[in-house]
Amino acid sequence: MPVTRSLQEQVIAVHLENPMVLTLVDLAAWISRHSVDFPIVQQLPEAPPVSLLGSPDQMQIQMFGPPPLPRLLLRSNDQRSAIQIQNDRFALSWHRTEPLGDPTEYPGFDAQKAIWRGRLDDFESYARERFGQAPKYRLIELSYVNAAPLLVGGKARRISEVFKFIRPEGRRLGAFNVMWTEPILPAVTPDENPGVITCQFVLGTAPPAIPVLAYTFTGLISVTSGKQYDVLLDIVHSRIREIYETVIFQDVS
Asked: What are the CA-CA distances from residue 37 to residues 31, 33, 59, 77, 78 (Å)?
């Protein structure tokens, strides 16, 4: 398996065209259905829906009102894997358990995609049993959350040693926040928005008071193109990987 020092979390999610009318009974059924593989149950705040808006040069994420029920998070015993269900989405995630900056084995994109596909099939099976039809999706999401320690071996690391866009002779910074978006694919028409990658970098602090450069890559792609889900996910992953290799030094990975 690949080894990483910076990756904290990976999430693969689908966003539904029409939110399901979930009840507390449904959440209880999901807890029972996955109690063997994901016995640790948590409740998370509602995550607002997201949408692709604007032309390819004006891509953004728009947030709406919260859904009526919170997200249900089910974790594995080792805390590394989790599934999330909310009335408008379904997600699978992988999480680091080792201390920040230590090497950890990450299953890799292909392995995670295969696991996600299996869990998604189970989600669709439940929806057919409960609502009489499989859900239809409007967006597929892939995100990678990373954090690079800026204090290594007692020596402070420059942002320019992590982030290729910053010149080495730059000034000492007390705060740093950069965000940009890039299209996933060229739009067929000016009004079409097939997908977007959002990249965000920020100086922060991780327990116990470790200065870090946190950076997140989030890809959203429309499923209206007629391509299979796995193909769309591959497209998003390839673009994120391309951007990652362009802006991050390899010894930080």
From this structure: 10, 9, 38, 8, 10
